[in-house]
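Project standup — Tuesday

K.O.: blocked on the structure for the chain from last sprint. Re-posting the sequence here as requested.
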Amino acid sequence: QVQLVESGGGLVQPGGSLRLSCVTSGIIFRGYDMGWYRQVPGKQRELVAGISSGGGMTNYANSVKGRFTISRDNAKNTMYLQMNSLKSDDTAVYYCNGRYVNWDWGQGTQVTVSS
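H.V.: unblocked you, prediction finished:
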């Protein structure tokens, strides 16, 4: 049974930082390209950042480039998203999943950027 568990969200002021974590189980984590996604109510879920299975290649949505950093620890079956210089537009529920293979979505973690 595949489980994707996101954590690390919260309320932060504009300009602040958060680090999200995604702990996976039930998959051979090191074998998959992974991604962080986010969704705002009423809008489609969008890909924020992606990372190759070995971690050597990353890509980002233009809206977060230079501010977010995706990484992974294959020994811990865990992926991270370091978010700096947060803006109100970053407010969303953040999810992790495969980049090209999607499993059932987890509950996500809420990120709220507000003063």
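K.O.: great, moving the ticket to review. The longest strand covers residues 18-25. The mean pLDDT is 97.
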